[in-house]
């Protein structure tokens, strides 16, 4: 099946979001660059020559961690490398999605293409053969401190040797069965192969790329619901014009976009000389999250081609490396998490303004005139909880202290856990968007606005799921259904097409 798709050549250059998305979805198959494989072979020869001289190479003919000083004999090496892989198959929890594992394999191979890893060419061929034959290792999520995903990558490496589980043609089967059905034989790890297959951050990088792209999609939807609520509240668009002209990159980008959308509709006259900060500062709040997402994602793209191995081959010599600590990338991802908190608060504030009534003569709780109802005010309880959930996930983790392996491993980033927390934030932000859309649609209908452009589209999509609120009714299923609708990438692509923000949309490949 996958032999019919197009090929993407891995040559040690950065993998952008569009490329990663094609690989993850199975729309493209990664293949090794010939020149890159020559560099892989040259680096492997450096390792092999050193071992032949009886010199120690960490994790190749020595133990790892607390066993670093144990030197294995030539007769022990085959058994040691096989055992090293199996000792690091200890992940637990839910499985990563198949696209994340595909991208992780591609990242691992791509970083080796620069010729610093020292693994054998056979290891790279074996990795890529898994994708070619639609054998995707089943990787459980828990098992990495974020300083090389050893417990996660170990589950991929184990499949290469015929141990563990894998998805083959959509079915979860024993690795040995998957390899046999595809006509492949288990790989016999050579010295350096086992640690090269384990001691990288490829899974964390892949999962981070996935959640950052989903976060970008959620922010684009929240921008749409933000325009909806701003129109319904009669916000002045002037501060957005100012931000577009006088602010920093992210603020100017968002300010220009917001001001552009206000020109599409018959924008109501401002209802106050000075709007509340939640309306005036929308460009600043969303600009900050746009900027931090772009920076974090930029660092992540860099990580897709830079070697994070230990040891590395450099200038024909073998050197110990500290590149397995992805702290720079992690810190920027954590910064984006903090920015999400500000977005959640901004959305909550607008929701409260809508439910409080008053602006544009909106009724309290958005109760329709003449109706006996409690209205939409109780939704604020859920909105406040969602805000607090997003906020609670923004506390930085990377500086937490941990000491393992006899004091040799005392630095960590916890990037996989941070990614998992960001996934929760994105889910809750999407639910906040659904609540804002319901409130905004109610307000738009009560004041009799005739929206245009993306506001019209968002209003129509909202009303197709959640009709105008007249009598009190349960809203749980409507909120979740609307959250699902706003998560749909078909709707996102329509938003992007109707109201593009090219610098942001193109970077995250949101139209894919």
UniProtKB/TrEMBL annotation:
Alphabetized InterPro entries for the sequence: Aromatic_Lyase (IPR001106), Fumarase/histidase_N (IPR024083), L-Aspartase-like (IPR008948)
Keywords from the UniProt entry: Lyase
Domain of life: Bacteria
Species the sequence originates in: Ensifer canadensis
Keyword Lyase: yes
A GO MF term: ammonia-lyase activity
SUPFAM superfamilies: L-aspartase-like
Cited Pfam families: Lyase_aromatic
Transmembrane stretches, start-end: none
Protein name: Aromatic amino acid lyase
């Amino acid at each position: 099946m996958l032999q019919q798709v197009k090929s993407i050549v891995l040559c040690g250059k950065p993998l952008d979001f569009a490329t990663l998305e094609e690989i993850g979805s199975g729309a493209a198959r990664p293949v090794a660059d010939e020149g890159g494989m020559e560099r892989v072979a040259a680096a492997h020869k450096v390792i092999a020559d050193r071992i032949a001289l009886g010199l120690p190479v960490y994790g190749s003919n020595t133990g790892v961690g607390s066993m670093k000083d144990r030197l294995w004999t030539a007769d022990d090496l085959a058994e040691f490398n096989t055992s090293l892989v199996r000792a690091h198959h200890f992940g637990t929890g839910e499985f990563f999605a198949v696209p994340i594992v595909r991208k992780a394999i591609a990242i691992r191979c791509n970083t080796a293409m620069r010729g610093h890893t020292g693994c054998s060419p056979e290891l790279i061929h074996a990795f890529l053969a898994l994708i070619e034959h639609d054998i995707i290792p089943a990787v459980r999520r828990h098992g990495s401190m974020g300083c090389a995903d050893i417990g996660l990558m170990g589950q991929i490496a184990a499949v290469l040797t015929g141990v563990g589980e894998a998805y083959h043609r959509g079915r979860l089967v024993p690795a040995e069965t998957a390899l046999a059905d595809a006509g492949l034989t288990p790989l016999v790890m050579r010295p350096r192969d086992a640690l090269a297959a384990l001691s990288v951050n490829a899974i964390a990088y892949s999962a981070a790329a996935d959640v950052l792209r989903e976060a970008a999609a959620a922010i684009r939807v929240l921008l749409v619901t933000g325009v909806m609520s701003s129109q319904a509240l009669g916000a002045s668009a002037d501060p957005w014009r100012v931000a577009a002209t006088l602010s920093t990159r992210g603020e100017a980008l968002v300010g220009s976009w917001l001001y552009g959308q206000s020109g599409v509709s018959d924008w109501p006259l401002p209802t106050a000389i000075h709007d509340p900060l939640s309306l005036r500062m929308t460009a600043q709040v969303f600009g900050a999250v746009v900027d931090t997402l772009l920076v974090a994602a930029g660092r992540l793209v860099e990580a897709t081609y830079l070697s994070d191995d230990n040891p590395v081959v450099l200038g024909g010599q073998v050197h110990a490396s500290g590149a397995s600590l992805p702290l720079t990338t992690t810190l920027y991802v954590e910064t984006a998490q903090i920015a999400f908190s500000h977005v959640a608060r901004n959305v909550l504030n607008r929701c409260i303004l809508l439910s409080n009534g008053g602006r544009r003569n909106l009724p309290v709780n958005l109760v329709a005139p003449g109706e006996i109802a409690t209205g939409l005010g109780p939704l604020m309880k859920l909105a406040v909880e969602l805000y607090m959930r997003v906020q609670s996930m923004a506390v930085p983790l990377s500086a937490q202290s941990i000491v393992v392996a006899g004091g040799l491993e005392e630095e960590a980033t916890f990037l996989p856990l941070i990614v998992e927390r960001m996934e929760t934030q994105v889910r809750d932000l999407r639910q906040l968007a659904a609540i804002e859309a319901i409130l905004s649609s109610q307000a738009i209908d009560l004041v009799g606005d005739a929206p245009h452009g993306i506001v019209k589209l968002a209003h129509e999509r909202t009303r197709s799921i959640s009709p105008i609120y007249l009598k009190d009714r349960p809203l749980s299923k409507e909120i979740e259904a609307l959250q699902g609708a706003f998560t749909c990438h078909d709707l996102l692509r329509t938003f992007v097409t109707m109201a593009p923000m090219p610098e942001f949309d193109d970077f995250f490949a949101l139209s894919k």
